[in-house]
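Support request, please re-run this one:
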Amino acid sequence: MTTAKRDRHTIGWIGTGRMGSVLAARLLEHGCDLRVYNRTRAKAEPLAKLGARIVDRPADLADRDIVITSIAGSRDFLDVMTGPQGLLANGSRVPTLVIDSSTVSMEASEEVRAKASSLGADLLAAPVSGNPKVARAGKLSLAVSGPRAAFDRALPYLQMLGSSVTYVGEGEAARLVKICHNLVLGVVTQILAETTVLAERGGIKRADYLEFINGSVMGSTFSRYKTPAFVNLDFTPTFTGHLLRKDFELGLEAARQLDVPLPVAAVVHQIVVSLIGRGLGDEDFAALLKLEAGGANLTLQPDGRAVSDGLESVEAHGGHR
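Re-run finished. Output below.
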């Protein structure tokens, strides 16, 4: 992409938490003209050192061509969009395109989409798959839904954020795709925890069991980058148990509305609730391993072995379909 094409749009960014700060930095690395808002201003300061300008309110980004959001949940999304100081609150001037990379409810997204449309703006739902380390490596995946013309306009910037960009249809389709994805995330982590504890109880080292899994047809990018946490018991959060519970509840609610039984997901949801009840909700959701070991009365010890997470830093590049 040429510099002229890249600089054609001015970009605003809302939300500089663990994921948002990494993604905003990727845009700056690609030379984008970026202004940033975060409720706690200090968390946005590192981006100022990379060339971003920090603003005091979401409404201060209303003159940007495109605004991207990365926030914690539905209530926060509504607040930064339609609250008293929200991006769409004034109405006299709004961005032509809003892209939300968060995991929020379809109802909240529909409300914001309707408000934006009434003001002449488009909304793309673009939830991301991966954690901040995956984002830094340029390996995030994005599912995107909304007007096709808006997607085509946003694609160069979406490709800066991750390695895979998939257009999945109109409206809120991407929200459902991401909710389904995170149900898989929790279920896979739980079965990895169960089988890892079973193997260790039988005298097999966790690192050896997971090395076998990662080299088999059952191995995946996800199983590889969770392996260091399982082996060395480092549960520094990339995605917490609280956040996983929120997404499971969004998924179960979608299933109720669409009359789809989710028996496995329902059981794992209760396990995640137990994780939080045991005081592990602020840790990475890989702490499901600790919960499973506790149920087996197995004392875990860090292996101390250096194991790869399978991630290599790459330049962001895009694919779409």
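The chain has two domains: 3-171, 177-295. The CA atoms of residues 195 and 209 lie 9 Å apart.
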